[in-house]
């Protein structure tokens, strides 16, 4: 990267590309060409910067100027002003909404200040499609070190000492998993990377694969060396076309450089990687289901034991790790386990990537040390709640997790603390909810998801979740009775206790945690037939304010079911027995006379 | 199974044979074979499944079981412009339901259906990972971010000519 004096880094993640970031790259290149600067200034399309809320992002290196919401037509300004005249384009700089001041570079942005980037170290810095750029940031050095200076046992010992735990959700110690896979005797073993990121609202694995695919490939090769495998398989969702393409490019480049294939670094170690495609099934994130899917079957889980480390893909010992877990490995080997374990809490070491989404100002991807509090994540990094609304809850761990509330805001986040409070780490999705969200509806939303995604193999999950959903639907429609709340809880606990795999064992969590933390809202729905967030349509009543109604008849004409009566220039009345709550009258009324309660 | 019987042409059957051959007729590659077939034909009607089953020496029931298990596979032909509305959590809390309702209203079709002129089909998906743009709508390969119900007409108009 040395011959260039300046780099323009343009985000090429899925979100920014959807906002035409590839056109920005094109325009920047054209402008530079026209000014004869193509040899001194380089335009690089990188992986995700994480600050998706304000995408597309263009970052200027070396001075870290951070341009937000850039449009293709801004390319000329950036080249003429910033590149040529050295003046920052003020109107494209990020404005801190709290202090209302322009922030000149990324180092001073609240979003980045508290972050430590290990798994995301290269995302937004390198062009993921050029292997040399990965190598220039110590890429494949860890593999070289492992192969030439360390025995497999030493590598495993180092990973164990680092305290790294599985980032896919369960938090199983990675080093121990590798050790178990190593101990299994077999003529053939497999390393599998679980890239079936099905948790809605979580996109860290996709961003790592799109922004830094080689870090995962390198770690898989290291894992192969440790457990004695010569084949790696990446199981990736077909819904991630960009990540698939980048992986394909990365694999072929690594093969070309001899970093994958036969006799890597002349050590006699062989390792190659293939892709296997998922086809849209949430349950395939569970490792036994994933293995069945890779074998071409329906992705149904099976009882453990046997664990995959003993009998996995095609009956052979298989080590399954998640994308983010792998992305941590090369850094641990280079910087040492002592460095890694100095970050985080007692039982959860290192950092965790979270996908912040929902009613939060800074939607995006963040990486923070374990033990950071929810308050820091939501209010400092996340910039607080959208539109100045009030924080209500945060759902962590996706459809398998639970809702945490105001009282949990100062909770340091790690695997244990989240579970102790009725939620879980999951893959790291964090959906922030505000006062306009109805917690009963949210629970119903997640159940709708699990009902659809349940594979149907075991009855507690297949039938139980359906019944849970029906109970919630009944309550949202205003037909709930007091007993339903007890039923919800009892049924939820039974499903948790008796389901076969992690999906069923966790699917009642959203219901149980909202029951625990938002009982008031449930009782309001059941007893008072009220939804305080105004989200449950069936619980709303439409009426007309006498003092505002002028008798224009607009509402009566708009009503599709004839529920509104009244003479011209007289007060109109809505008959609640006929009203279907479609809201047509509310839309039509020009005098704010129609109200919803 | 889909109610309309179709007759596969000879060249179409040969294409399926070719795809199966490229995966060495291995039963374990069933999902990859189906991906390729769906890419080629747009959907996976019973007739295609029968040919795949015969080629890979699997039962038709097994192939049907896999096709219906995974949401990515469809037994109904998609429209020329398939519309997918993201109903992942981030999009849901930012109003994806209302956007979906508006698409249904405008196109007069339900989720999983294709409009009478074969132009648009409607489906939901869970998270494309562009949560910063929520609510997100995909039409074919094109992504639309921060879609509001009153923006639906304009999106459809873009593909209407």
Q: Can you give a write-up of this model?
A:
The complex is a heterodimer of chains A (597) and B (161). Chain A contains 24 helices and 20 strands. Chain A is globular and about 90 Å long. Chain A is α/β, with parallel strands linked by helices. Chain B is of the alpha+beta class. Chain B folds into two domains: 10-69; 81-158, Glutaredoxin (3-Layer(aba) Sandwich), CATH 3.40.30. Helices cover 43% and strands 11% of the residues of chain B. Chain B is built from seven helices and four strands, in the order ααααβααβββα. Chain B has a four-stranded mixed β-sheet with strand order 2-1-3-4, with helices on one face. The model of chain B has no long low-confidence stretch (mean pLDDT 91).
Which CATH architecture of the largest domain in chain A? 3-Layer(aba) Sandwich
Please, how many domains of chain A? 5
Helix content estimate of chain B: 40-55%
The largest sheet of chain A is: 5 strands, mixed
Q: Please state the average pLDDT score of chain A.
A: 93
Based on the coordinates given, report the CATH architecture of the largest domain in chain B. Answer: 3-Layer(aba) Sandwich
Strand order of the largest sheet of chain A: 9-10-8-7-11
């Amino acid at each position: 990267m040395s011959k260039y004096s300046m780099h323009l880094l343009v985000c090429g993640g899925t979100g920014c590309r959807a906002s035409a970031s590839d056109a920005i790259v094109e325009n920047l290149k054209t402008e530079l060409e026209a000014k004869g600067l193509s040899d001194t200034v380089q335009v690089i399309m990188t992986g995700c910067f994480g600050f998706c809320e304000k995408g597309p992002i263009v970052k200027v290196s070396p001075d870290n100027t951070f341009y937000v919401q850039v449009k293709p037509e801004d390319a000329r300004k950036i080249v003429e002003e910033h590149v040529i005249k050295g003046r920052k384009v003020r109107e494209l700089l990020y404005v801190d909404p709290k202090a209302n001041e322009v922030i000149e570079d990324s180092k001073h942005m609240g979003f980045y200040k508290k972050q430590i980037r290990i798994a995301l170290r290269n995302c937004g810095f390198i062009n993921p499609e050029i292997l040399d750029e990965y190598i220039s940031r110590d890429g494949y050095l860890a593999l070289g070190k492992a192969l030439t200076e360390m025995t497999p046992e030493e590598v495993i010992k180092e990973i164990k000492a680092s305290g790294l735990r599985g980032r896919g959700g369960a938090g199983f110690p990675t080093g121990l998993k590798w050790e178990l896979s190593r101990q299994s005797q077999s003529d053939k073993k497999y390393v599998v990377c679980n890239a079936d990121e099905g948790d809605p609202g979580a996109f860290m694995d996709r961003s790592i694969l799109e922004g830094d695919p080689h870090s995962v490939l390198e770690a898989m090769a290291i894992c192969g060396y440790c457990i004695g495998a010569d084949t790696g398989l990446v199981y990736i969702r077909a819904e991630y076309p960009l990540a698939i393409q980048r992986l394909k490019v990365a694999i072929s480049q690594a093969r070309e450089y001899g970093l994958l294939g036969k006799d890597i670094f002349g050590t006699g170690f062989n390792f190659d990687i293939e892709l296997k495609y998922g086809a849209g099934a949430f349950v395939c994130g569970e490792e036994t289901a994933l293995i069945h899917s890779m074998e071409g079957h329906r992705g149904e889980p099976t009882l453990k034991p046997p664990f995959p480390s003993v009998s996995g893909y095609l009956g052979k010992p298989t080590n399954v790790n998640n994308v983010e877990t792998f992305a941590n490995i090369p850094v641990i080997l280079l910087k040492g386990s002592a460095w890694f374990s100095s970050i985080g809490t007692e039982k959860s070491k290192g950092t965790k990537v979270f996908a912040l989404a929902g009613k939060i100002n800074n939607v995006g991807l963040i990486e923070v040390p374990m033990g950071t509090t929810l308050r820091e994540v939501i209010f400092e990094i996340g910039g607080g709640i959208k539109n100045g609304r009030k924080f209500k809850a945060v759902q962590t761990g996706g459809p398998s997790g639970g809702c945490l509330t105001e009282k949990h805001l100062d909770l340091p986040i790690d695997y244990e603390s989240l579970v102790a409070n009725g939620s879980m780490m999951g893959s790291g999705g964090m959906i922030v909810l505000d006062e306009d969200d109805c917690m009963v509806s949210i629970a119903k939303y997640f159940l709708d998801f699990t009902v659809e995604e349940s594979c149907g193999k075991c009855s507690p999950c297949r039938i139980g979740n359906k019944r849970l959903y029906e109970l919630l639907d009944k309550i949202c429609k205003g037909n709930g009775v007091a007993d339903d709340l007890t039923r919800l809880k009892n049924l939820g606990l039974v499903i948790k206790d008796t389901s076969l795999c992690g999906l069923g064992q966790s699917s009642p969590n959203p219901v149980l945690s909202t029951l625990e933390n938002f009982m008031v809202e449930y009782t309001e729905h059941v007893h008072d037939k009220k939804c305080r967030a105004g989200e449950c349509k069936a619980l709303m009543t439409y009426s007309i304010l006498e003092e505002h109604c002028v008798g224009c008849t607009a509402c009566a004409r708009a009503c599709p079911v004839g529920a509104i009566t009244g003479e011209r220039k007289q007060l109109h009345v809505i008959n609640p027995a006929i009203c279907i709550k479609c809201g047509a009258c509310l839309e039509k009324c020009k005098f704010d006379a129609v109200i919803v309660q | 199974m889909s109610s309309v019987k179709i007759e596969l042409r000879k060249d179409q059957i040969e294409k399926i044979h070719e795809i199966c051959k490229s995966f060495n007729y291995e039963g374990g590659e069933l999902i990859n074979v189906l991906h390729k077939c769906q890419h080629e034909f747009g959907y996976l009607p019973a007739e295609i499944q029968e040919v795949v089953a015969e080629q890979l020496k699997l039962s038709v029931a097994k192939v049907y079981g896999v096709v219906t298990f995974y949401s990515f596979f469809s037994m109904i032909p998609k429209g020329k412009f398939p519309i997918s509305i993201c109903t992942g959590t981030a999009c849901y809390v930012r109003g994806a339901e209302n956007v979906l309702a508006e698409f249904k209203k405008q196109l007069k079709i339900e989720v999983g259906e294709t409009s009478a002129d074969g132009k648009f089909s409607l489906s939901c998906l869970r998270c494309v990972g562009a949560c910063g743009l929520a609510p997100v709508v995909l039409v074919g390969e094109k992504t639309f971010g921060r879609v509001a119900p009153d923006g639906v007409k304009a999106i459809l108009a873009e593909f209407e000519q």
